[in-house]
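Q: Second attempt. The first request was missing the SMILES, so the protein and zinc ion are both included now.
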Amino acid sequence: MTHDLKDVIRKETARYSERLRKIASSLHEHPEISSREYQTAELLASELAAEGFAVERKAGGLDTAFVASYINNPKAPAIGLLAEFDALPEIGHACGHNLIAAASLGAAMVLKKVLPPELVNLKVFGTPAEETSGGKLPMLEQGVFSDTDVLMMFHPHTVTCGLRPCIGRTSLAFEFFGKSVHASTYPDRGINALDAVILTFNNINALRQQLRDGTRVHGIITDGGKLPNIIPDHARAEFFVRSSSKPYMEEIAQRVISCAQAGAKATGAELKISHPLPVYLPDIPVDSLIECFEENLRELGLAVDKLEPPLRMGSSDFGNVSQVIPSVMGFIKIAEEGTATHSRQFAEAAISERGILGMLNAVSALSMTAADILTVPGLLEKIRQDYKDRVVRA
Ligand SMILES: [Zn+2]
Ligand SMILES: [Zn+2]
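A: Got both inputs this time. The predicted holo structure:
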């Protein structure tokens, strides 16, 4: 891309900066949790509508999802910007999704202004409930993202880079049914459902030694009985199993199920297995897309961090999307290393001057990357090829 266009992108970002700051601040002041982001979605959709974007609400059948499109040429490659916007209970925007939404809106507005009209085929996807049920999943199933060539977003963090891998996550609930009796008078007639849960935890802890590095298995007990003098006839535990490899995650999930089955067998309790949350898949990294984003971060004067193992990784419905469409989630540092996401400190960072500046840099970096994809000869083909190669290897 010409440097002229990059300069224009910076200038346009600056022109939108106060408006985007207000949007990010307003979201931060009125945090709404997953699937209840009504005011949030309305604000974002109306800002895009005011810029001439055609807004379709309730995308994928979700109350708070939307797609905002600005299309001059439907034959041009379609660039999609993902706007996550849900907050967390009690701690508000402690994942900084207010900045994600503002950045994706900003990039779409800037691109609409600076791209040659024949290259304008833009979409902003308002994607609810990243923190819980994963709004992108029904949107994906309903084909909301089809006809999009590349998807992009940024996430605020304590590092600046083009990739922090998402690991897959599968959820399991184990419900055990036993027989309650007086724990002192008739213990020999009871079936202890809580013991089945405790054995499940112990079995999983024995399994840990055999797990590959980077695998995560973590759980809680959601029902452990009612009174010490009643042998619990019902107990329940929930677990997440995570891995960067989808087949390995599935294999370990099966072994965790075996741990619960062994607990049921040992106690005589009956076991019911369910999956309370949808599966988040690992992401498919696209090297050429990541390099392009990082090059633009450098162009903006940002130092790109080289991540050293062990990596601290979470899971996102972004992973599922990236399994279907070449996608990039870039990261920009808005808080010092050691500040944990999902903490009150990170919620403060998400409204700080540094947070706003990070969001504005994200607007420029996303816009420059999209402009590169559309104007650098051969880049989109390279991205598609890298993507195919990665999918084959995954
Ligand atoms: Zn989060
Ligand atoms: Zn997040």
